[in-house]
Write a structure and sequence with these properties.
- The structure is a single chain.
- This protein has 514 residues and is mainly alpha-helical.
- The chain has one domain (15-510).
- It contains 20 helices and 2 strands.
- The chain has a two-stranded antiparallel sheet.
- Strand 1 and strand 2 form a beta hairpin.
- It is globular.
Length: 514
């Protein structure tokens, strides 16, 4: 079933290839524009990301979420056939949900950035377009080498986004981001090569196809010794857990977020972190089910520490951006907990939360950036009582914060409820500790809102604050709309991901689940 062709191929076999490389084509077009043509550069970026968003929506509308496996819009073409490396792309509900998130946030970031003062605008737009290609490519790649190429390709534009358009310590933050990610990536490359060698030895076929590997693993054709499977599990897992990032591998994230420009923080929190949890579900659980079950208690404990630690440290922050950064450590740790509970409801909640967190936290970073553009400070003490001067920004910030803390009726509630409900069926202690982190999250985010927008009136400079402008509002509105819509009507997203989640749970075999 995993390799079966789909009738969708007849409706647009090249749709995914177009979707992957369209942003890079837009970046190449920018090379023919002078740096002074800021309006033309803006429209090339917006039209390119807008077209990618519309194409991803078309793919979603044509996709049959009830069909198990990765059979949607499949393309299999020789790339380096001598070594079994092919250009293979395709989607299932899991990857498609994140592709939609990626194209939406990429479009919204360039919309919002159009209303801000950004030096070297041409390079800025080009970097985000190339980054979008890397993110989409990682999500649709079905060949491990192709996945690795796109995974590494994301590093380059993100390094420049932080290193050129970031804050005072931008070089340090960019280097730390690259070094942490690169170490994990090298481990993953070793894991890919060893796994391909074992697959060739077991089947007589040289292949880097993730689907071929999964089929062989599920059929028991590898029969790996426990220690070998364990080493391969960690070769992949460390690369993905660094990206999440899970405690104690998280130390690069606060620096990267604080120093990154607003658009960089939105994409970093909204999409890049989710590629870590996506990798765990695409590689670790299906390929190494025994090791996944064996190490689930350890990863579960690390996730629980991350949930509480991230929330606790966030509560101690005075810098708004750093607070939101540590909140991501807590929220993504909860996602990891849901994944390694090996429960269908919890895993569906984890995927829902990936999308939900991308929207709410992306919004929070965007709105913190709106305030920073006007006051050039992120310290909560430098604000206070600004709701009078920025009522629209205040409204958007409150909705985003309430969505992040899981208020019923907003998107955060659905994911958190499913995760904790599923984890409750597996381990009551895990559920209780995870819920504690959510309570702490409500405390620090509502405290942030109160101090900044309704606290005692701050410095006189706040009286001159201007509200969110038209471009920034245009970038925020699609995200805020989905925060509300997914909270009231979660069924479309749940229906999209349900079958894919069940396939992952079945592939993981549930053996040794806590």
């Amino acid at each position: 079933m995993l390799d079966s062709p789909s009738s969708l191929d007849l409706l647009g076999a090249d749709a995914l290839t177009t979707l992957v490389f369209l942003p890079t084509l837009g970046a190449l077009l920018l090379a023919f524009l002078p740096a002074e043509a800021k309006r033309a550069i803006r429209w090339v970026g917006l039209l390119t990301t807008g077209a990618a968003l519309l194409l991803s929506v078309k793919v979603a509308l044509l996709f049959d979420a009830a069909v198990p496996g990765i059979s949607g819009f499949r393309v299999d073409a020789p790339w380096i056939p001598r070594f079994g490396i092919w250009y293979r792309v395709g989607v299932d509900g899991l990857s498609l949900a994140l592709v939609l998130l990626t194209t939406l946030l990429s479009f919204c970031v360039l919309l919002a950035s159009s209303g801000q003062k950004i030096d070297r605008w041409k390079g800025y737009v080009a970097a985000f377009l190339v980054l979008e290609t890397g993110m989409i490519g990682s999500l649709v790649a079905l060949d491990a080498i192709l996945f690795y190429v796109f995974w590494e390709a994301m590093l380059i534009p993100m390094y420049f986004i932080i290193g050129i358009w970031g804050g005072k310590r931008r070089i340090y933050a960019a280097m730390k981001f690259v070094l942490f990610t690169l170490v994990g990536s090298l481990l993953m490359l070793v894991g890919i090569l060893v796994t391909a060698g074992m697959h060739a030895k077991a089947t007589g076929i040289q292949s880097f196809s993730i689907l071929d590997w999964t089929a062989a693993s599920q059929a028991g054709r590898w029969a790996l010794p426990a220690d070998v499977e364990g080493l391969l599990f960690w070769a992949f897992a460390l690369a993905f857990l660094v990206k999440v990032p899970l405690w104690p591998l998280h130390t690069w994230l606060p620096d990267a977020h604080v120093e990154a420009p607003t658009g960089g923080s939105v994409i970093l929190a909204g999409v890049l972190l989710k590629l870590g949890t996506y990798g765990l579900m695409r590689f670790n659980l299906p390929l190494f089910p025994e090791a996944s079950a064996r190490f689930a208690p350890l990863i579960g404990v690390l996730a629980l520490i991350g949930v509480v630690y991230g929330a606790w440290v966030a509560a101690a922050q005075k810098d708004m951006k750093k607070l939101v950064a540590y909140s991501s450590v807590s929220h993504l740790a909860l996602v990891v907990l849901g994944i390694f509970s090996f429960n269908s409801a919890a895993m569906a909640g984890a995927v829902f939360q990936m999308v939900g967190h991308g929207l709410t936290t992306g919004l929070l970073f965007l709105l913190v950036g709106v305030l920073y553009e006007r006051r050039h400070t992120r310290e909560m003490a430098d604000y206070g009582g600004v709701a009078t001067y920025v009522p629209v920004t205040t409204t958007l910030f409150v909705i985003s914060a309430l969505g992040s803390v899981g208020l019923p009726g907003l998107n955060g509630f659905i994911g958190e409820f499913l995760i904790l409900g599923g984890v409750f069926q597996v381990n009551l202690v895990w559920c209780a500790v995870g819920a504690t982190g959510l309570i702490l999250g409500a405390i620090y985010l509502l405290t942030l809102v109160q101090k900044v927008f309704w606290g005692p009136e701050g410095p006189a400079a706040n009286r001159g604050l201007t509200d969110i402008n038209g471009w920034e509002l245009a970038g925020a509105l699609p995200m805020i709309a989905l925060v509300v819509v997914l909270g009231v009507f979660p069924a479309p997203l749940l229906n999209l991901i349900r079958t894919s989640v069940e396939v992952v749970v079945q592939a993981a075999s549930l053996r040794g689940a806590p």
